[in-house]
Amino acid sequence: MTTLLTLEQVTKMIQNESDKNTTILDHIDLTIRKGEFVTVLGGNGAGKSTLFNSISGTIELTSGKLYIKDKEVTRLPEEKRARHIARVFQDPKMGTAPRMTVAENLLLAMKRGEKRYLLPRKLKAQRDSFQNLCASVGNGLEKHLDTPTGHLSGGQRQSLSLLMAALTNPELLLLDEHTAALDPKTAKRLMELTQEVIEDNHLTCLMITHRMEDALKYGNRLIVLENGRIKLDLNAREKAQMTLEDLFVLFEEEKAQLI
Amino acid sequence: MVISAIAQGLLWAVLGIGIFTTYRILNFPDLTVEGSFPLGAAVAVTAIVNGLPPVLAMVLAVLAGMSAGLVTGLLYTKGKVPVILAGILVMTALHSVMLYVMQRPNLSLLNHPRIFNGLAFLPNYFDAVVVGLVVVSLVIGLLLFFFYTSLGQAYIATGDNEAMARSFGIQTDRMKIIGLVFSNGIIALAGSLIAQNNGYADVNGGTGVIVIGLASLIIGEVAFKDVTLGERLISIVIGSILYQLLLLGVIRLGFDTTYIRLFSASILAVCLMIPQIRQVLKLDTLIRKEG
Fold this sequence. Notes:
The complex is a heterodimer of chains A (259) and B (291). Helices cover 36% and strands 25% of the residues of chain A. By secondary structure, chain A is an alpha/beta fold. In chain A, helix 3 runs parallel beside helix 5 (154-166). By secondary structure, chain B is mostly helical. Chain B has one domain (2-260): ABC transporter involved in vitamin B12 uptake, BtuC (Orthogonal Bundle), CATH 1.10.3470. Helices cover 75% and strands 2% of the residues of chain B. A two-stranded antiparallel ribbon of chain B has the order 1-2. Chain B: Keywords: Cell membrane, Membrane, Transmembrane, Transmembrane helix.
């Protein structure tokens, strides 16, 4: 399998009020290969979100290097990396433009990473395909093509965010606890949709989750972060042998250490 | 007098539309307005006095306004100066620019041609109504075209949800600069129109104009809810006319025009509070019950 993303000694430190440096990511080395679906677990403050922000370019690294395929992207701004990397956020409000309609949002997503010219947007030409795409979700999104996304339910907005993120078959999909703000039933349905979208489009994906059962059920690799380091990195075979109890024990240990 | 107020409303509406493109779409207040508006007036009047035809003078005014917007945009996006401060800085600096352009604090258009002259055959004030209608339609038409291009959609998305826009590869800094450039170009156009209507330009002509522009915007929003983008732009024009009619009414009632700004500010303050007042008095639920 070809290498898609490489992190070399990635470190992020921030200064707190007393001018002490806090290390959030501590010299992380990580290689993601094409086609991997990695679930990422870790307690609060383990550095999961910072890891994603570093990969997507939302924050600058203190040190270390980042490569997409063979190209170094450490200094590449977020909007340029967006050509390769798509992201779904935890907060349903963050993934869509609230005053723009569902169709307009999808059209924005279709032009991921492209230059946006002073030419008519040509929404009509895409309507049918957007209609079909939304209908495939099965939560009534197709009836709201012309509704501003701010009026949609959280579940509808998150599934739209997911469709938008996956629309152009990005090389890497980052899911940042994208089901965490939803009720259990809606979250379950969104996870099933996620699985479908990733399989159908053969996407490479990193998914942060708080639900250990999801971390075990989905994906073909599991990473556990602790204090800014990778504590555990399981391949598909090892992951298949892992049980929920094992994971609980692992996290209990972590808690015990903290106390 | 009513025709005069309508004419004023149409001309000032251009300012409201200019403010809308940043204040409502990008969601930040741009104080460059109070500099780019009189700058447009100063440039246009100086150009006309120096023998340029009014249309060309207005084009120069727009370019001047766009440059002012560009400076604010660069300070804000590249220099990371807070946007309000960037606007104040440019507004302050423009005072000197205007003095340089006009070589004096104010300049009269007495005995010089104006954009309204070609329509002198029309009855009083109707020339301004026609010019106002043409300019407002042109500006709205161009803006609507822009909003519905790929670039325009990226621009709207930037104001709507910046984090999301960036995650889809939209260069949000560039969008903000484009917005400030367009907005201040439109505002300078408004300044050049008002100056020709008043017959002079003054370096202090910008004081309080942001209140007039916002008033038309907010009155339009309070009067018309849940409308499309095109209707929203038209509602600003209607808001601007309503505002001028309100001013006219107050002057008719014998209000001392010396203190007119207090009244302008009060109208805006009341309009801004209307959503809150409605909520406190539960007017919406009352109306619904009656309905």
